[in-house]
Design goal:
Largest sheet: 7 strands, mixed
Number of helices: 21
CATH class of the domain at 329-436: Alpha Beta
Helix content: 40-55%
Structural class: alpha+beta
CATH superfamily of the domain at 329-436: Calcium-transporting ATPase, cytoplasmic domain N
Radius of gyration: 33 Å
Shape: elongated
Distance between the termini: 33 Å
CATH architecture of the domain at 329-436: 3-Layer(aba) Sandwich
Strand order of the largest sheet: 10-22-21-20-11-18-19
Number of strands: 22
Length: about 625
Amino acid sequence: MSKKQKRSLCRILVSLGLLILCLVIPFGENDVLRLAAFLVPYLVCGWDVLRDAALNIIHGRVLDEKFLMAVASLGSFALGETTEAVAVMLFYQAGEWFQGIAVGRSRKSIAQLMDIRPDTARVLRDGAETEVTPEEVEVGEEIIIRPGERVPLDGVILEGSTSVDTAALTGESAPRDLGVSEMILSGAINLTGVVRVRTTASAEESTVSRILELVENATDKKAPVENFITRFSRVYTPAVVLAAVLLAVVPPLIFSQSWNDWIYRALTFLVVSCPCALLVSVPLSFFGGIGGASRQGILVKGAGYMETLAKIRTAVFDKTGTLTRGCFEVTDVHPSGVSPAALIDLAALAEAHSSHPIAQSILRAHEGHIDKERISSIEELSGMGIRARIDEKTVLAGNSRLMDRFGIPWSLCGGDGGTVIHIAADGEYLGHILISDKMKDDAPAALDRLRSLGVEKIAVLTGDTAEAARHALLGLKTDLVIPELLPQDKVAKVEELLSPGKPLCFIGDGINDAPVLVRADLGIAMGAMGSDAAIEAADVVLMDDSLSRLPLAMAIARKTMRVVRQNIIFSLAVKGAVLLLGALGVTGMGMAVFADVGVLCLVILNAMRCLRSPKI
């Protein structure tokens, strides 16, 4: 509890004690003394409301909740309802205090993420360790990370091995084992060994900084329902103030009714009409949902994306690295006129500078030293493969489209169920290499869970051949698999699948799929830990490779939207009923206070449920 909240609670308790004291003191017929006595607890708890209401009037902001409370409570004093006047202000302040506690808890859930940013880094300079802030470490410098310390900057391990806790980044509790030449990301906790790391990013561009910036900015982007509530309150508040004025004036003037009775009804009407329950609970629900998701390694860039995620009816997947492991292996080599070793050697040289998983599988299969001096030039032909100048020969390594483009006859001489890389040199076909990928273990269960959450269509887009896609996705329940697509073709296919009223999400790795992520109604990047392109292009970022995070993200979004709808319906229903009963004189100020402060407290409690992620 903050100092401000403690002071507010103290004022509420003092005011409550003074109110009880005023109720037991016998004032008799001395109304002036009664008024003066009740003004004391009123001002103790309500002077800041009166001050803010006055300042808002001066600045042209008249019709807000503080104005309504000030008018209602002062009007009650004018009518001699001193107890109710103090009670209105007391319960209003209690509701504000409770709201502050709830918002504080929601902010704390997100603020805990801020603890993943280390304050210091131990950098090696001139052979000695120097402790500096992460901002002072330049890219390429070497840092030392000891067990128990949080990793300050992204980098590559040069010496040592360790296990790291990445729960703050991915939501995954199991530690990861890392060794020499592997990436270690800022925000993770070094658990076991001392490692020497060469930094690959500045503090501002590190993984932890990007995550924190994303989460901090997420709550600034309103959902359509939030914008509706804001617009609604702008019309609603003036309307109820006008209605209250008419309620106070028309019956006494036209029907000669009691002024005191109808003014009291009008003041009750004002207290009930305060829209703070809606204005607080809706954004608080989204705030809680975003915070709860972030603790699970699911980063939602704004409330609007949370609302879209809850409505998804079509899910379109990239195949490689999303539904499949992305860990390719060379499973067959079919040479034509050369030895298998020579074919692998040419392919490895052509792919020597590529970081693509298929290229890496060929390099692993080569196993020997790759003499890059034999390579004169390398050109990547998007969606087809590589054209390289090796040993003064023009070497082509890629798919059948690459062979067709250069008029080279190609053939398949056995083996199926994988990605085929054809090799040619100076126009002569030299054979092909078969590379296989495997589906992720949790893919079938994740897709079944998506269907149970209301996803009606599941499609897969891939650049692989139909046979390779069929083999890799064997046993997976999909509605549509579209093979042999270039990156630009994926955008066109997603546009074909878009349907009004049935939002579509695309799930990919966020790097080569960036155009499709942007084009879909909702872009979801998977396994994006450390990926600039993923965090930039996607609307929702899943920080690890587990497909189970996807239905969890959707379940969190749907729970958040259920809570939002519950709060809106409950608030409007209770307020509508009490407004009507107050206008008819059936209910008094006590029920009006419940309809405002009581409803506010209940919807805040309901909104805080969003902090807890649902079990799936």
